[in-house]
Design brief:
By secondary structure, the protein is an alpha+beta fold. The chain is 22% helix and 12% strand. It contains three helices and two strands. A two-stranded antiparallel sheet has the order 1-2. Strand 1 and strand 2 form a beta hairpin. 1% of the residues are buried.
């Protein structure tokens, strides 16, 4: 397994660390889910936050009940009172959806292919760019002696 992390957002009460990990497995979806669960569990066990500046969404929603404890039931009751038909962000925050279970979080095989360097259009180099006009290519600007009608402070 290879892993890296970077700090992208800092706040008065902490920072947002982004972790990237990669590895090989015969079952990439299971590997991803187990790694994600292990990292999230370790974060929560050490007092880290579940929230993210993009929201909790589907990936973190399954952890909300254990993260909030009894407050999860308060959240569910508030959501039900404010959204009795469950149409606002159904299935998010680990809350039930009247439309059934949320879609599975995509695994590596479900994501669209990313174009490689050979699939991208060529970037034009300096030789491919059109010539830029230089000072010698610009029309001459008439001066006062050319009859260009330059006005003076006196009015004529």
């Amino acid at each position: 397994i290879a892993a890296s992390a970077h700090l992208s957002h800092s706040y008065t009460d902490g920072a947002c660390l982004y972790f990237t990990f990669a590895g090989r497995s015969a079952d990439p979806e299971r590997y991803y889910r187990e790694a994600y669960d292990a990292v999230t569990g370790a974060t929560l066990d050490r007092g880290g936050a579940l929230s993210h500046h993009h929201g909790v969404g589907l990936n973190r929603g399954g952890y909300m009940r254990s993260y909030l404890g009894p407050a999860f039931d308060v959240l569910a009751a508030l959501k039900s009172a404010l959204d009795p038909h469950g149409i606002l962000n159904p299935g998010k925050l680990g809350l039930p959806s009247p439309f059934g279970d949320p879609p599975a979080v995509p695994g590596p095989r479900d994501l669209p292919a990313v174009p490689g360097p050979r699939d991208l259009p060529a970037v034009p180099g300096p030789r491919d760019l059109p010539a830029v006009s230089g000072p010698r290519d610009l029309p001459a600007v008439p001066s006062a002696g050319d009859g260009g009608g330059t006005a003076t402070a006196g009015g004529v």
